[in-house]
Amino acid sequence: MLLQTWSEVLTASFQNLWVGVVGFVPNLVVSITIFIVGWVVGVVLGKWVAQVIHALKVDKALNSLGIDELVSKAGFRLDSGAFIGALVRWFVIIVFLVAALDVLQLTQVNIFLQQVVLGYLPNVIVAAFILLIAAVIAEPLKKVVAGSARAAEVASSALLGGVAYWAIWVFAFLAALNQLGIAGAFFQTLFTGIIAMIALAGGLAFGLGGKEAASRYLEKLRGDISR
């Protein structure tokens, strides 16, 4: 009687295992097929996008802005086609991977990919773009502000240029962190304080440095009026 009971239990267990395997294998095959198709589509689409970017000569336009120097300082070679193509390739692959995992009903992994990877990746791209814009405009703006201050005979022209340069970088850094959702309220408060400090420092520097220039201008204006 005991042996018969154990035999029935083992038979039922193996039957359930076989039914589970038979039910899982088709889903596994479909999931693998979806992933392979997604990989092929991602690779092909990524190469096509890279070729389009190269045909549009985007790198040439970026070189004229001095982006190649910034990229080379970071130890990389400027190739916008390869970079954007890689983003497109992995985005497509991850989308198909989400679909493949959905077939296997791996809910938690699927939620992670949708929320963390696909949901957060656009924010990372925007944050990187913000820092790239800052790298492009910070140095030219520094030269413009310093040159304008020198033209106005302000003694602290270099200081004003430096303030403009670092103001751009601080603003871009805080904007990038805010885009990434990292301590948004804290950095907004910090940014407000920094802007106030920069405005006060710039006002004092301009006031002290431009004191003599303003005095000469007022003397000239008084002389013109008295004529």
UniProtKB/TrEMBL annotation:
Pfam families documented for this protein: MS_channel_1st_1
Keywords per UniProt: Membrane, Transmembrane, Transmembrane helix
Listed InterPro entries: MSC_TM_helix, MscS_archaea/bacteria_type
Transmembrane as UniProt keyword: yes
A GO term for molecular function: mechanosensitive monoatomic ion channel activity
Transmembrane segments: 28-50, 82-100, 120-138, 158-177, 183-208
Gene3D superfamilies: 1.10.287.1260
Superkingdom of source: Bacteria
Statement: the UniProt record of this protein carries the keyword Ribonucleoprotein: no
PANTHER family in the record: SMALL-CONDUCTANCE MECHANOSENSITIVE CHANNEL
Protein name: Small-conductance mechanosensitive ion channel
Species of the source: Candidatus Vogelbacteria bacterium CG10_big_fil_rev_8_21_14_0_10_50_13
